[in-house]
Amino acid sequence: MKLYSEKVLVAWGEAISGNTKIRDWLLKNNYPELALFCYALYFDEKSSNWLFKNHPHLLALIKAVEGNNKARIFLNKKFPKLYTISLAADGDVVKMNFLIKNDPLFAVIANKIKLVKDDIDEINNDIHKWGFS
Description:
single chain, mainly alpha
């Protein structure tokens, strides 16, 4: 896994939160995987396919947050930090507290991923509730 500076990780977190200017900056400044992660988070198939071919651990992070057990096993074996982030982003309070104490920047990123996924779930629940599915 590529090592990123704190500045880039902060930018990634902002891009996850919806800052399109920063997402585009990531794309243009040699961090396409982080920019495309943001698209894939919203189920963009092209971005997901690109991540699968080039940075499968980042796609696995998204899938693990969504509860995919194979993605969780993969991350746990090969990318334990991403595994912890995925569980925290999926609402695991113990893992989130661990990140807060040991790696606060990744706790922020996990929380940003969680907020996006919670928003998507809320929209999907409203669609089903109102019979639009």
